[in-house]
# Entry
Amino acid sequence: MSMSKHEAASVFEWTVTGMDCGSCAGKIKGAVERLPGVSAVEVALMSERLRLQLDESQTQRQTVEKAVSALGFGISPRAGQEQGQSGKAAGCCGHEHHGHDHDDGHGHHHDHAHGDAHSHSHSHSHSHGHEDEKPLADGSRRAWHQTGKGRLVILTGALLALAWAAHFVLPPQVGAWVFTVACVIGVAPGARRAFAALAAGMPFTIEMLMTIAAAGALAIGAAEEAALVVFLFAVGEVLEGVAANRARDGIRALARLVPKTALLETDSGTRQVAAESLVPGQMVLVRPGDRIPADGVIRSGISGIDESPVTGESVPVTKGEGAEVFAGSINTEAALSVEVTRAAADNTIARIIKLVEEAESARAPTERFIDRFSRYYMPFIVLLAATVAVVPPLGFGGEWNTWIYRALSLLLIGCPCALVISVPASIASSLSAGARRGLLMKGGAVIEAIAQVKTVTFDKTGTLTAGRPQVVDVVPFGGFDVLEVISAAASVEAGSSHPLAKAILTRAQETGASVLPSSGARAMAGRGVEALVAGELLQVISPRHASETGLLPESAAAQAERLEGEGKTVVCVIRAGNLAGLLALRDEPREDAREAITQLERLGVGAIMLTGDNARTAAAIATGLGLTQRAELMPEDKVREVRALAASGGVMMVGDGINDAPALAQASVGVAMGSGTDVALETAHAAVLRDRVTDVPALIRLARKAMGNIHQNITIALGLKAVFLVTSILGITGLWLAIMADTGATVLVTLNALRLLAYDPAKEV
# Structure
């Protein structure tokens, strides 16, 4: 049986260096996607990544690399790339307890990393260095003067200085020839790449426009200005490269958080090994002051852990035996023995970096609009330049040299690089700034959606509350005693990781109540859970469900109402169809929950609590926090509430990454709250890694700041282009100012985007 095209294709990744603007990504994409057997091409500017599906029976990897190299970019296989069939399965099963506002084991995955990096039609780019653009062995970048673009600046600058000296010392004809030589040598690298792009089917590149402009200027006798333009173009290229690398520094800084070496514990003592070689199950020694080399679990010792590199939380957290720790965190007090639980490629820092890098593919609607606009902008400018060069001389008797000169100026500002980079530069900076503070967003589309949020809906347990409830009341019924009630509930809840289940199991351990083996555990959505224990059916269900099924006597119902009125969550323990007792649990609100609601009010954002818990408990919690609530909601009810709220504007749903998966999916933005867990990183559109409710308004502030920055950049890019289009046609500005308008605008919008790196949304309240 022959394989389909999709089945034959494997996924390959490369690191591509020398990309300075969004146009560069479009140029690479346009070149490689024309190759046979190539599909699903993604080029990520800030993470310098090329990913595609390739059928090697049609095109070899080396052919792809040659196509990219021909355009003047450096390319090498990406470290640790996974090659093979693409695809990801998601979802897992578990049991739910919506009746008391919790459920267990929900896996819920959204893959929002779809979409192309840039349309192939954006094939307007700048010339680039090649192998010398690669990082050094320590991960740092070469100084600007050590790169190909830097050396070109030095060479063209020296030739220009020599030409001016010759102009003043030698006869004018000789000086003009020296300027001509300086211009030809300076434009040669760009011309070579221009024709390589033309051969790949991309005529509209800035290199081609530069070549035409330089040749035209020489033809009309403007050799001095042509040489100056070539030099300014080279300077602008260097500035763009420096600015782009500065924008990437935030992501690179994350990678440097994990130490290079680790102290591996062996039978013969400790020995130093490479941190990337650690595998799950190994034990490492972490001394005071050291960074933890891998995600793991503390097996011995107790110490303060500074998790600010991972979560942005500056206050060290005391952790002891059995506590989870993250790679890159700092051990502040005492020696720890840590068992490795994840390989280097899968640790929390690596997953954060991967999330930030892949977020570039989830492009904002604004970015997609700019891409569509740019698709027609450059051909329009070329047509306008041709019209300016021909119509005035032919139709109105204008001077040919004058109007050709003005047309050449138009060509030089025809590349919309500044416009194309205006959005991704701001998005990359905001993603990096957020990641350093424990605020993760999966791309520009998510940033734009967060900025437009009008209402935030919160899950209760583990989100607005601390997620550490305790059993505070046990009320036996039907002749059962306290220990029997606790034992029955704990036996049903055994194996569950939900906070309420853990509270019941903890109480069983404290009181010495036995936890018996169970079988046939089954979740009853919105009602509770049941299981067979010693051949007897036991249930832990909500009072409402117990009342509906006739299992809650009036006296017990009155007790349940009283406990719920005190802000407690009540569950009924049923044995063989009879009420055995009531358990009342209390989970206190997080310390910063009230402040978070206040901050949302200042932002003009409404807040609502959606919970499956009973109305009295929900009201007690909500009243204390100052927000409205909807209680006793089944999972489908929560989805319905979110959908109804969405009719009046964007809705954000905040949960603990496990609960309320359908509601998270229905919301405009689903936000998972959790300390770096797999679920928190993968479940929703965004995640707050610190257990802080105030990070929710901080996330909104960051997104709004990013969108404001994007609008500033678009204004700068379009404003400068508009001004110089008019002044070039009128003859007010010439070639050298035109090229400054192009490269200068690109540098300006990039530097403006870099301001986001220093923005701390938590401080602006």
Q: What stands out?
A: Confidence is low (pLDDT under 50) at residues 1-7, 82-132. DSSP finds 25 helices and 28 strands in the chain.
